[in-house]
């Protein structure tokens, strides 16, 4: 009886491990550079079915299909851009975690840069106006008053 | 006075950003335009579900407005959608099915049980045509005009009211 329980327990512990290993494909790469490109591409392509997962992290069937295509196309010697174009033609810009710089995304990319520039301009203007204010020459009346104040102690 | 108003600028910016993000909360991320809109139906060469000897290609869709429905026996929503597709066929819409990632037996059983509104069913066991169509789940429905260009893409379930309110008007629009 104890033996049966032990076997069942062992099976229960091992079962999730098995399920986990089933979802990870084993890919053969000719060189480490291609392997790294594969990792990068599957990390920057977004799964169209699941809301916020890269295809490299997703178990959904479509993510698996997309990983297969990325792998096949890398083996065919396609460039990263060609592979991304291939995916965008089918699934739209949605699959890019890194939106491309184009007419429609100009605001997206340009706004943060524009805000930084505006901020820098404001800082420069403020510093400059403050410096000018402190370096202003004293008028004759002010100078006379300053002299009077400075000399007051001496005269007393 | 104008300097005072300038101080309100960051608040205005914050409100605009807040409104923008608030609106995003209620948006459905699955309602997005198909990448294939206004493009030709992708080329393919596959057999039909009924006849493994008969090969069809994209010329199947030329000549008249066709509704292409991607389904599979494994897809529960496709079963719920079937009455709407039968209704569309009754209204004289030409339907072509794509049996997506299925086996031949299961696909045939499905049609025998739930009805067959399709003129032809393209058998796509590997999902290659589905992939070229940018299908990421079933059901998905494409409206293809007489020139073989994709004109409308419906992602997911066609509700009973969608038949009259969305699909039929789209079909009529592209028939002209």
Topology overview:
The complex is a heterodimer of chains A (156) and B (176).
Chain A lengths: L1 H21 L9 H13 L16 H15 L4 H12 L14 H29 L5 H16 L1
Chain B lengths: L1 H6 L1 H17 L19 E3 L7 E3 L8 E6 L4 H15 L3 E7 L3 H11 L5 E5 L3 H5 L7 E5 L5 E6 L4 H16 L1
Parallel strand pairs in B: 3-4, 4-5
Antiparallel strand pairs in B: 1-2, 3-6, 6-7
Helix pairs in contact in B: 3-6
Description:
The complex is a heterodimer of chains A (156) and B (176). Chain A has helices at residues 2-22, 32-44, 61-75, 80-91, 106-134, 140-155. Chain A is mostly helical. Chain A folds into two domains: 2-100, Cytochrome C biogenesis protein (Helicase, Ruva Protein, domain 3), CATH 1.10.8.640; 106-155. Chain A starts with a helix and ends with a helix. Chain B is 40% helix and 20% strand. Chain B has helices spanning 2-7, 9-25, 76-90, 104-114, 128-132, 160-175, and strands spanning 45-47, 55-57, 66-71, 94-100, 120-124, 140-144, 150-155. In chain B, the strands form two sheets. In chain B, strands 5-4-3-6-7 form a five-stranded mixed sheet. A two-stranded antiparallel sheet of chain B has the order 1-2. Classes of the chains: A mainly alpha (156), B alpha/beta (176).
In short:
The complex is a heterodimer of chains A (156) and B (176). Chain A has 156 residues and is mostly helical.
The coarse silhouette of chain A is elongated
Q: Could you list the spans of chain A in which at least 5 consecutive residues all have pLDDT below 50?
A: none
Morphology call of chain B: elongated
- Reading the helices and strands of chain B in chain order gives HHEEEHEHEHEEH
Report Rg of chain A.
33 Å
End-to-end Cα distance of chain A, whole Å, is 111 Å
Strand count of chain B:
7
- How is the quaternary structure best described? heterodimer
Helicity range of the residues of chain A?
Answer: 55-70%
- Averaging pLDDT over every residue of chain B, what do you get? 93
CATH topology of chain B: Glutaredoxin
Under CATH at level 1, the class of the largest domain in chain A stands as Mainly Alpha
Which strand-content bin applies to the residues of chain B?
15-25%
SS-derived structural category of chain A: mainly alpha
SS elements, strand count of chain A: 0
């Amino acid at each position: 009886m104890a033996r049966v329980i032990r076997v069942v327990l062992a099976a229960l512990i091992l079962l999730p491990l098995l399920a986990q290993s089933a979802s990870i494909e084993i890919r053969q790469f000719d060189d480490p550079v291609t392997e790294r490109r594969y990792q990068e591409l599957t990390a920057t392509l977004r799964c169209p079915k699941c809301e916020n997962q890269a295809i490299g992290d997703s178990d959904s069937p479509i993510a698996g299909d997309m990983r297969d295509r990325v792998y096949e196309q890398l083996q065919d010697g396609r460039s990263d851009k060609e592979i991304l174009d291939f995916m965008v033609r089918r699934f739209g810009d949605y699959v890019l975690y890194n939106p491309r710089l184009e007419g429609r995304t100009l605001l997206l990319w340009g706004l943060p840069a524009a805000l930084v520039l505006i901020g820098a301009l404001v800082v420069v203007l403020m510093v400059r106006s403050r410096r000018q204010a402190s370096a202003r020459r004293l008028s004759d009346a002010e100078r006379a008053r300053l002299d009077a104040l400075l000399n007051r102690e001496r005269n007393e | 006075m104008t300097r005072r108003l300038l101080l309100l600028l960051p608040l205005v910016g914050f409100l605009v950003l807040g409104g923008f993000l608030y609106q995003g909360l209620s948006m459905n991320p699955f309602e997005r335009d198909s990448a294939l809109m206004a493009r030709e139906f992708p080329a393919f060469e596959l057999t039909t579900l009924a006849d493994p000897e008969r090969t069809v290609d994209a010329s199947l869709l030329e000549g008249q407005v066709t509704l292409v429905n991607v389904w599979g026996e494994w897809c529960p929503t496709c079963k719920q959608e079937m009455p709407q597709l039968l209704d569309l066929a009754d209204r004289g819409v030409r339907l072509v099915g794509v049996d997506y990632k299925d086996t031949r037996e299961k696909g045939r059983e499905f049609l025998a049980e739930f009805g067959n509104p399709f003129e032809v069913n393209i058998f796509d066991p590997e999902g290659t045509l589905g992939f070229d169509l940018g299908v990421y789940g079933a059901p998905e429905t494409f409206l293809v005009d007489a020139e073989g260009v994709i004109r409308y893409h419906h992602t997911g379930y066609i509700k009973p009211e969608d038949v009259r309110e969305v699909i039929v008007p789209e079909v009529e629009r592209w028939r002209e």
